[in-house]
Amino acid sequence: MDPKLLAQRFPGDFVFGVATASFQIEGASKEDGRKPSIWDAFSNMPGRVYERHNGDVACDHYHRWEEDLDLIKDMGVQAYRFSIAWPRIIPEGTGPINEKGLDFYDKLVDGLQARGIKAFATLYHWDLPLALMGDGGWTARSTAHAFQRYTQTVIKRLGDRLDAVATFNEPWCSVILSHLLGIHAPGERNMQATLHAAHYTNLAHGLGVEAVRAEAPKLPVGIVYNAMSVVPASESAADIAAAKRAEDFHNGIFFGPVFKGEYPAGVIEALEPLMPKIEDGDMKTISQKIDWWGLNYYTPARIEDDPETPYPSHKQGAFVKPEKTDIGWEIDSSGFIGVVRTLYSTYDLPEFYITENGACYNTDIGPDGEVDDQERVDYYGDHLSVAADMIKEGFPLRGYFAWSLMDNFEWAEGYRMRFGLVHVDYETQKRTIKKSGRWYTSLAEEFPKGNHSVAAE
Ligand code: FCB
To answer: What is the Cα–Cα distance from 406 to 61, expressed in whole angstroms?
Structure first.
């Protein structure tokens, strides 16, 4: 798809950015006072992460951040979504503040400003200080209060120079994938723990919003969700009912409290005895109005009824489209707009950003020194054209961040799964812009356009 033609379908003030996360790129895991996170512990245990890859070096971004910011600038991108590592700022979760940790992000944010790049920070992208596991990690109410203090500490120092802040990245992953499915740290499989982690994450979000507003009242604060794009596997009544349960359990458990001040009735009915005590005022704290939200989308979820398994009693249905990316995720851009339609018709949502979208292709550097990842170019073209459809349909979409700036530590998959617009050689740390990176540049460099309107199609 021609990126210049695609550009014409977005308003002139639309934000094009790239995204990363601290644990996936920084490395320097023991430097300048950082202490371990749950992901350090998890990745150092056998059998958890592919070939026991860990975050000790990653993309060495902690030392190469200037070069990386230059790269973003050279790619013509106007915004950078990154996350802050709690274990650098308050290494034990509670207790002493580590000034050196704050200094790193201070320099990073100044570096973005100096290059004219907008700073979109995420406070929590899964690197919980390991010491907090001593109190139960996210299953403990005290972690929500520790998060509030961490948020206040960060925003006091950086809030004047950020363009937007998100409390959490993808609570579904840090709660359900981590506490029920056992795939991410801390690797539990327990419904009671999951429901506790859900409520205390929601509470931490609300307490975090309060802390941001207290320190930087003008800073737009939001939250990022990988809302499940639920599609019933068939038209059967059983699959449709399973899809409704999936919607309640995977999306409603987070969107309900934040945007309606309540948990979905279906979840309460099925699971109330396992839920934590909801204290007076919790739902009010959680449901304070926020300025924006972010959607991360990669693939749809085909939901098939499975009465053999406990609530929400469903399994993955067969893929409809034959195309998949190298991580095995079905490619279907109709799920991208489908989830947006469902969410805006169910909740009263503010404006939003696509905070992650992208594809895994493990294309190597060719003999000519080029990374010819045409499949990734096709994925972006297809999904960005659907993002333009969202705007055409009237959804308040303000920007789009590609996942990811560069190849990085892909959680349980280690370094073998590559999502970057830029290739990273982990032996030499050499960065090479892929074909998709150049394609994205041709699109992004068209903005800001200054006309602030969508050209007629
Ligand atoms: C999302 C995560 C991000 C990255 C992509 C591929 O779930 O937020 O860190 O791993 O998936």
So the answer is: 11
The answer to whether 192 touches 199, Cβ cutoff 8 Å, is no
Q: Alpha-carbon distance 375 to 409, whole Å? A: 21
Cβ–ligand 1 contact at 126 (below 6 Å): no
Question: Quick one: tokens of 297?
Answer: 């989308």
170 CA to centre of ligand 1 in angstroms: 8
Mean pLDDT of the 168-177 span? 99
- Among left, alpha and beta (phi > 0; psi -120 to 50; other), residue 357 is beta
**Does any ligand 1 atom lie closer than 6 A to the CB of residue 410?**
yes
Joined together, the tokens standing for residue 380 give 């972006």
Tell me the three state secondary structure of residue 377. Answer: helix
Contact between 356 and 415 under an 8 Å Cβ cutoff? The reply is: no
| Under 8 Å between Cβ of 285 and 203 | yes
Q: Is 356 part of the annotated catalytic residue set?
A: yes
Cis peptide leading into residue 186 (ω within 30°): yes
Three-class SS state of 432? strand
Tell me which of 170, 215, 247, 410 is the catalytic residue: 170
For 290-344, the pLDDT digits (tens) are 999 999 999 999 999 999 999 999 999 999 999 999 999 999 999 999 999 999 9
| 42 in Cβ contact with 49 (< 8 Å) | yes
Using alpha carbons only, give the angle 52, 55, 59 rounded to the nearest 5 degrees: 120
> What is the reported pLDDT for 449?
87
One of 215, 304, 330, 356 is an active-site residue; which one? 356
Task: Evaluate whether 387 touches 354 at the Cβ level (below 8 Å).
Answer: yes
Q: Is the CB of 407 under 6 A from ligand 1?
A: no
What's the CA gap between 365 and 430, in Å, rounded? 11
- Catalytic, 351? Answer no
CA angle, 170 then 376 then 320, to 5°: 70
194 three-class SS: helix
